[in-house]
Amino acid sequence: MKRKLITLAIIILCFLLQSTIFPSLAFACVQPNLFIIVTASFGFMRGCKEGMAVGVICGLLTDVFWGNTIGFYILLYTVIGYLNGTFERLFYDEDIKLPLVLISGSELIYGGIICFCGYILKGDFSFGTYLIHIILPELVYTILATLIVYQIILHINKKLEAEEQRSASRFV
After folding, report:
1. Dihedral sign (CA 99, 26, 82, 158)
2. CA–CA dist 95, 24 (Å, integer)
């Protein structure tokens, strides 16, 4: 129960940062996507189910506050959480390369799907412009934010796992 509450608190904190502080820190109308970082991180740290659960909550918040329809971002973030959860077996706390690669890939998938569904299906075929002016700058900004946010999430996850192991050893 404590893990779920802390996870929810992290999601809400990222939502507040994403909606209040980061718009004023945007470069060229681009800001880091903290929900991608959180969803991907919980996916490869805790597995598919937790990645999907975090994805549903992040997607719901995005749909309600910034989306046009309910369900699009829920599906998108849930798939991202699931795909990152499949890499749980490859995850090691000390290795930063895998999280950076997975979060970068998630950001590219996110940007590509948003471009495809938001622009190409409407007849705007300027993918190159969207890639250069939105997807790649957001990717770079998200990677820079990942270096900080991921370390915080990793530290919290380590503390929670240590606490869970201590409480589990009391019952054995």
Report:
1. positive
2. 32
Report the distance separating Cα 99 and Cα 32, nearest Å.
16
115 within 8 A of 130, measured Cβ to Cβ: yes
User: pTM for the whole thing?
Assistant: 0.91
Could you tell me which residues come within 8 angstroms of residue 141 by beta carbon, excluding any fewer than 6 positions away? 27, 30, 31, 32
* Contact residues for 94 (Cβ-Cβ < 8 A; gap 6+): none
**Residue whose structure tokens are 């681009």:** 30
Task: Give per-10-residue mean pLDDT for the chain (172 aa).
Answer: 93 95 85 95 94 97 92 96 94 88 96 86 80 92 94 93 82 62
Output the DSSP codes for the chain: -HHHHHHHHHHHHHHHIIIIIGGGG-BTTB---HHHHHHHHHHHHH-HHHHHHHHHHHHHHHHHHT-SSSSHHHHHHHHHHHHHHTTGGG--TT--HHHHHHHHHHHHHHHHHHHHHHTGGGT---HHHHIIIIIHHHHHHHHHHHHHHHHHHHHHHHHHHHHHHHHHHHH-
Q: Which tokens sit at 83?
A: 């795909």
